[in-house]
Design a protein that fits this description.
Blueprint lengths: L1 H6 L26 E7 L5 E7 L12 E5 L23 H6 L3 E5 L10 E2 L7 H13 L6 E3 L2 E2 L1 E5 L2 H12 L5 E2 L8 H4 L8 H19 L6 E2 L1 H11 L7 H10 L2 H5 L5 E6 L7 H12 L5 E6 L15 H12 L11 E4 L5 E4 L7 E13 L4 E2 L12 E4 L7 E5 L2 E7 L1 E15 L5 E2 L5 E8 L3 E6 L3 E5 L5 E6 L1 E2 L9 E14 L7
Parallel strand pairs: 3-4, 3-8, 5-10, 8-9, 11-12, 12-13, 16-26
Antiparallel strand pairs: 1-2, 2-4, 6-7, 13-14, 15-27, 17-25, 18-24, 18-27, 19-23, 19-27, 20-21, 20-22, 20-25
Helix pairs in contact: 3-4, 6-7
């Protein structure tokens, strides 16, 4: 200021005051990042929480808040510059903050710096922890409120961080919008489909949960897996790899249908076509339940998830989709959130449908053969299916023109075999020999057998797939004795099979630009 006065030829003395003596007025401090917040939950369990104000938020300003939950066994995000992970479909902290949202992350009970034991997103435990975090958010000066105690609130996060969104939105009406990513509908169908334990993923999850819970104890918490979770891990990972009725009942109780139908917060479901832990079937069930009540619901599929994309992933659609969803339902902006159902094929082409694409026809195949059911005939890569060297192979007719296959193929299997231990499984998968024997979506489905020497017939849906089939495609159904994705078979027997399969085809929906 002195320089400007001198240029104007005005002496500071003529102003009758001493500029040097004028007190400086300090600007209000910008909101600070807090990574040391400890919230006491309903039962006294400390929940370690982090608060990241929106980028550029000035003192006295408020913004909507987004809770972002971590994966199983992991602590909440603490790095404010985290970007979107397109492999698992999880939006980063930075894109949310830069779009004008406060971000809150936390260590779920049993993990990180939080105390307690992990109950796997049990509404009575992790659900109430999350409600305590909402209470905390409502007291923060940076949080925009709908009403006292009720923040403008969205949720994001993948896997375990996706599952908690369904739980909290169902029991706490303060949640205004959710974007659950690669989450589950029912752990008994995702990890114990048809009575076959998913040992590949089960070993990873149980091992990670146990190890990280123990690591947490080193920093002062009593983190660990809860008794029902430990029990299920032990049952599933040791012979005969069968869950007890008590374990099945526990996990089924965590996500009943009425939980999903009670959700009123607009829901964007993000699901990976290559996810072999929580497959497309799980997300479809969630989509159907939530949308059936009239709640605004959208499905966005991408190539990724719990698994590796073995085809073309396409561009990042997750970040703009999540930000548009929050702009529409947290800021009430007139944003176009796109079609209600967007699905992607192996070429990275996303197509838009007004709802779940309904079948208009099918591609079929029929064949027969005999194989020796034996644990030695194993294929796969721990968490993903691979071409089986020992299998009954059933060619599937190719279409004359490019055709979209979408949904759950239907398998009808007639078989006969005998083993002293009569109950076992075979595994069904679809491969494309024209693409280095690619397994569609890396997916494999357990099919239960009763080997009592008599002929049996059953019809079962296979895991959902999304695939564009051409005249050059060479799709083949494989019925194989064993896969590394699931527990090894419990019987050895020469068994004959007659198999027919129908892959649902859908209309040529428009591609999303």
């Amino acid at each position: 200021m002195r320089k400007h006065l001198a240029i104007l030829g005005v002496s500071a003395a003529l102003l009758g005051t001493s500029l040097a003596a004028a007190p400086a007025i300090a600007a209000p401090a910008a909101p600070a990042i807090r990574t040391d917040v400890v919230i006491t939950s309903f039962d006294g369990t400390p929940i370690h929480t982090n608060f990241f104000p929106a980028t550029g938020l000035a003192a006295g300003q408020q913004a909507p808040t987004v809770m972002v939950g971590p994966g199983f066994g992991l602590p909440g995000g603490r790095i404010p510059t985290t970007t979107t992970n397109t492999l698992i479909g999880s939006i980063g902290i930075a894109p949310l903050r830069d779009a004008g949202y406060n971000v809150v992350t936390w260590d779920p009970r049993g993990f990180g710096f939080s105390g307690g034991e992990a109950y796997v997103n049990n509404p009575a435990y992790e659900g109430r922890d999350a409600s305590a975090i909402v209470d905390f958010i409502a007291t923060q000066p940076e949080a925009r409120l709908d009403a006292p105690g009720d923040p403008v609130l969205g949720m994001a996060g993948a896997s375990y961080g996706g599952g908690i969104q369904f739980v909290l939105a169902a029991q706490d009406q303060r949640v205004d919008a959710i974007t659950p990513t690669i989450a589950w509908n029912d752990l008994t169908t995702s990890l114990y489909k048809a009575g076959s334990f998913k040992t590949g993923w089960g070993a990873l999850l149980c091992g990670e949960g146990t190890a990280l819970g123990q690591l947490g104890s080193l920093v002062g918490n009593d983190g660990a897996l809860s008794a029902p979770v430990r029990k299920a891990c032990q049952e599933g990972l040791t012979y005969p790899n069968q869950l007890s009725p008590e374990s099945i009942a526990y996990f089924a109780s965590l996500t009943p249908d009425e939980m999903f139908t009670s959700i009123t917060a607009p829901t964007l479901i993000i699901q990976g076509t290559a996810d072999t832990l929580f497959t497309l079937n799980e997300a479809t069930r969630n989509y159907e339940l939530i949308s059936s009540t009239g709640t605004p619901t959208k499905m966005l599929q991408f190539c990724g998830g719990h698994g590796l994309c073995n085809s073309t992933a396409g561009p990042d659609r997750i970040t703009p989709a999540v930000l548009n969803w929050f702009a529409r339902y947290l800021r009430n902006e007139p944003v176009n959130t796109g079609a209600a159902f967007e699905f992607i094929d192996q070429n990275g082409i996303t197509r838009a449908a007004p709802g779940y694409p309904q079948a208009t026809g099918s591609l079929t195949g029929t064949g027969r053969g005999s194989i020796l059911l034996s644990p030695a005939a194993i294929s796969g890569a721990v968490i993903a299916a691979a071409v089986a060297p020992v299998a009954v192979n059933v060619p599937i007719v190719s279409p004359a023109v490019p055709t979209s296959v979408f949904g759950a193929p239907q398998l009808t299997l007639t078989y006969r075999g005998y083993a002293p231990r009569g109950n076992t499984h075979v595994y069904a998968q679809i491969i494309d020999k024209s693409r280095a024997s690619l397994v569609l979506g890396n997916q494999v489905t357990p099919v239960p057998l009763i080997l009592d020497g008599t002929e049996h017939t059953l019809t079962v849906p296979l895991e959902e797939v999304s695939y564009t089939v051409t005249a050059a495609s060479r799709l083949v159904l494989q019925i194989t004795p064993a896969t590394s994705v699931y527990a090894l078979p419990k019987a050895t027997a020469l068994t004959s099979f007659t198999a027919s399969v129908a892959l649902p085809t859908v209309a040529a929906y428009p591609a999303v630009p």
